[in-house]
Amino acid sequence: MRVLGIEGTAWAASAAYFDSETDEVFIESDPYQPASGGIHPREAAEHMAGAIPEVIERALVEAESVDAVAFSRGPGLGPCLRIVASAARALAQSLDVPLVGVNHMVAHLEIGRHRSGFANPVCLNASGANAHVLGYHDGRYQVLGETMDTGVGNALDKFARHLDWSHPGGPKVEEAAREGEYVELPYVVKGMDFSFSGIMSAAKAAVEAPSTGNRDSKSSGDAVDSGERVEDVCFSLQETVFAMLTEVAERALSLTGSDELVLGGGVGQNARLRGMLETMCEARGASFFAPEPRFLRDNAGMIAVLGAKMAAAGDTLAIEDSRVDSNFRPDQVDVTWRGEESVSRPAGDGEVVGAEAVVEIGDVVRKRRLAKEYRHPALDERLRRERTASEARLTSLARREGVPTPVVRDVDPREGTLTLERVGRADLSAELTPERVRELGRHLATLHRAGFVHGDPTPRNARLSEDRLYCIDFGLGYHTDEAEDHAMDLHVFERSLAGTAADFEACREAVEAGYREDGEPAVLERLREIEGRGRYR
Ligand SMILES: C[C@@H](O)[C@H](NC(=O)OP(=O)(O)OC[C@H]1O[C@@H](n2cnc3c(N)ncnc32)[C@H](O)[C@@H]1O)C(=O)O
Ligand SMILES: Nc1ncnc2c1ncn2[C@@H]1O[C@H](COP(=O)(O)OP(=O)(O)OP(=O)(O)O)[C@@H](O)[C@H]1O
Ligand SMILES: [Fe+2]
What we know:
kinase, Kinase-like_dom_sf, five-stranded mixed beta sheet, globular, serine/threonine-protein kinase, binds adenosine-5'-triphosphate, ATP binding
């Protein structure tokens, strides 16, 4: 199969030629560079209009023959997408070959899968406009977790703009971070979702005022002093944001039971991010793969490679059905080029390596949050201490409210250790029936009424016994009466179901039915709203 791929979702006007027989990929790109500020959609489209025909021409020179034309159908900037689609349609028609419409984010994932040879990896996409973790289940790439606000590259670019640095800011932040030292910034992970806006405001505020020169008087907590050195804030921004991405990637590996991770997207060119992911995977015996930079940043090579797989599966488009979709989500794609395999977790006993902790299961359960090598030591110490303390406190509080939880026998937040009663005979994930899931819905409603959230409700954080369902692992829980936070708790659970459950719809109805029995109707309405926000915006 020989495929001509075209990419132009935002800044990279790119065309590529892929020959699946030799596995060679020839890429021609012409980037758009804004004169000032960030990417202007109109200017970007003007760039595409001029550059797309030229890069196609150069790629065609390399092409011996073309069996299909593939193009990025979305997500991206509408005006840019339309130019690319027109060019692709015209080319497919003039060459009289099929047209293939590729989801750009799935292409960022598939290029890693293709180059690594991994069968069934979890994928972290860290790009400009997006940030999410994908896992394959039920014939789709499920979004296991994603940003609640901006993409990770956009967050870095905006911070750089605040410093009057030119676009793109990511590489400049990386450069400045080399000389930096750690200052504390907010850290926001909810289940496998995460948010950058609070961190970015804190980072901007931190560099606002001129330095006082007194570096010993920093306050702790989420408050950040202004007047920090730019290189220190850049360093800490990377330490914080990339630790969040690495943590959610690890959670996804733990939830799905996969031991393969691939990285995609332009921010994947960052050496610190790659290093953290590598270290995390090594520590848990997983394999990590990041494609070379030409396949990480936006490029038509990944479009051609996925286009070839789709064309081989007969997944082509009639011209009249080839509309672009600027909000095209990866989980909307019907994965026609793969089998029905899904990552599922073998039930284990003895010592369990969770996402966060090593859990020894004997007469009692000993949970140790060991230091994570990938994190900066100061951030690592803070997270382990805070989460261990929360887990002990909320586990006991939940039981007093009537939700079954293990008795906490001992806790040492400084060491990050807990000793817990052993409860249940299996994780809920082992027998995921609607009836059991409904019980979890009731438990969540009870917690919320009591004014706190679990923080990470998944089928692996609930334990089955004959007569009850225990909730465990409250480390990400916190006190809140906000409907948004309560709805987010349910959303985290439903997402983890979508990534693992055999009968997702029945389980989702069950958790909501259980919640309705004791919870606020406003929370379920808010849940619908959260889902309707797509990527929360
Ligand atoms: C929809 C599509 O248009 C969009 N594309 C996109 O965001 O371009 P991509 O090439 O994947 O990523 C660009 C981002 O990658 C960042 N970046 C590039 N090199 C970096 C580095 N060394 N460190 C951190 N960020 C870097 C840039 O600052 C910029 O924000 C996407 O994939 O979300
Ligand atoms: N009190 C307990 N009784 C019985 N089994 C337990 C108990 N606590 C934990 N486990 C088992 O250990 C596994 C991991 O525990 P836990 O979820 O607390 O660790 P974790 O590292 O936070 O995991 P993750 O973040 O991946 O959910 C659970 O899925 C469960 O099977
Ligand atoms: Fe991209």
